[in-house]
């Protein structure tokens, strides 16, 4: 998701299907977790097979709020 206010990445949402249980996808997902962490980009995984479980959308919203409210001239930490 990208902020309309400042065109910065707010967070990345990935929909995980059963293919994420394969060994090659597990390795890829681990790398993606590391990359998102290094880049300090909030990352939400939502399982498409666990439709009854809610992803941590509200916690993520609170975590990314500083990124959304920052203007182009403000530094984002």
From TrEMBL:
A Pfam family per the record: DUF2726
Superkingdom per UniProt: Bacteria
UniProt domain DUF2726: residue ranges: 1-54
Name this protein carries in UniProt: DUF2726 domain-containing protein
Organism: Salmonella enterica I
């Amino acid at each position: 998701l990208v902020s309309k206010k400042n065109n910065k990445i707010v967070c990345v949402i990935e929909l995980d299907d059963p293919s994420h249980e394969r060994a090659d996808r597990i390795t890829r997902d681990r790398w993606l977790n590391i990359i998102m962490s290094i880049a300090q980009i909030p990352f939400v995984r939502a399982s498409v097979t666990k439709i009854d479980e809610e992803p941590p959308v509200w916690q993520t919203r609170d975590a990314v709020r500083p990124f959304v409210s920052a203007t182009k001239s403000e530094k984002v930490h």
